[in-house]
Amino acid sequence: MDIFALLMWPIKWVIEAILVGFHWIVTALGGDPGSGLTWVLSIVGLVLVIRSAMIPLTVRQIVSSRKSLEIQPEIQRIQKKYRGKKDQFSREAMQRETMEAYRKAGTNPFASCLPLLIQMPIFLGLVQVLTDANNQKAGVGLLTQELAVLFSESTLFGVVPLHMTMAAGFEQGSVPVIVTAIALTLIMCATQFYTQLQIMTKNQTPAMKESPMYKQQRILLYIIPVFLLISAWLFPLGTMFYWLVSNVYTLVQQLIIISKLPTPGSEAALAREARMARKRQRMGLPPVDAEEAETAAEIELRTQRQQPRSKKPKSKREGS
Fold it and tell me: What region does 85 belong to: left with phi over 0, alpha with psi -120 to 50, or beta?
């Protein structure tokens, strides 16, 4: 066993345990153990367990990302200070001051990447587990050869084998596989794009939108869907279902975060303040503080300005 296989062994064992556990639950509730729908539901359960367990890391990543964007003006100031200086002393000083800025902000340049770094081995482990199952090989844990055979021969609605890829569908001329793969791919790309778009347009402050990191995120907004299109050509449908459910989970999670815990000063935060102010007005409660009172007054004034007005002269309206 090589070092990579050794490192992946515990990850694959946990994945198999969760997958087989949900397969047992669905089967106990009356599902066909060899049905593709049973295996898809098991994959959905796997996603829910893994992503729910990662919620604390996701919250930490969100906080770190916000802090990293907030200190970008300071990072730019440091970079400008040492611009054009190529000597070793200057480079070390710039790196030292940069890390000190991150330390004071309570974050680091790599903190926002932590959930992604954790998800990648899990995804690779899932790919290996499903690949072994497609080849009717027993896994490292609870995925027996009998279950592997059931998975490799399972079909969705009797016509879409979960082990097939989009490439294999085109090669064999299987219309159901092609249609299913294309539908999954389009939904995957749409959910990924919309999730990132919501973060960038509604949950960023004006200062954040001026930072180089924001510009890099705008580039990724269009690059990631292209990567998904290429990957969807090669991945089996079972793996694509995992990816799709994970994307939908991320989208719902981000919508909740943007609504309940928006970045202070962002469009989402202003919208939340407006909702809270209107709620207190409807309940007949006074504003919490002067700032909320000012916000409520501004919202009311903005609402009045946006009301449509008749173009007819006042005298004509009264006489009609």
Answer: beta
